[in-house]
Amino acid sequence: MINSPTSVAVLISGNGSNLQAILDYFNDKPDVAKIIAVISNVDGAYGLTRAQQAKVPGIVIDHKAFSTRQDYDQALLETLTELQVDLVVLAGFMRILSEDFVKTWEGKMLNIHPSLLPKYKGLHTHQKALDAGDKEHGASVHFVTPELDGGPVIIQSKVPVFEDDTTTELAERVQQQERNIYPLVVDWFCSKRLVMVNNKAVLDGNELPESGYAAD
User: Residues near 98 by Cβ (< 8 Å), separated by ≥ 6?
Assistant: First the structure.
């Protein structure tokens, strides 16, 4: 019996550079994963253009059309359920999802965060790293749990921080690493190598350490 590819929906709010990396990666691995939809909460996000160019359906669920977070998340849930999505990938999706929504997709939703978690949860991570005088910074891919940026880390990639760095320069260095590691983690999940068990990331049957799989 041939396994069908894992159905993936990518959620975005903006440019979609990580989305592009995922689209490019799985263009060569159609048997592993199929990106069946790109969903944006912002009409006109450039990531929707990337989806169109890749012939992937783009869907706008504008958060401004909903009076509460729960109403928005319910509409998002209904769309994902209708599409029969196996994995939700957050790629610059700038919304905090409600606990009920996250629990529904727990173990089946990934996020990438621009810091070496548990450092610098939330926003402005590059500035925080510079302000702290850190010698290294980076990105983390993790499973999504109700705690903001608090789910088990799957992989991290580090970059050096130079004395004269600006936030823009540091962000670009981190984003280059993001585009390398995020498609890899999606591949692991879709290839049935990666699961979440008891709030731990497990790869090839081995529980990963708190910092995830080393990818320096």
Answer: 69, 70, 73
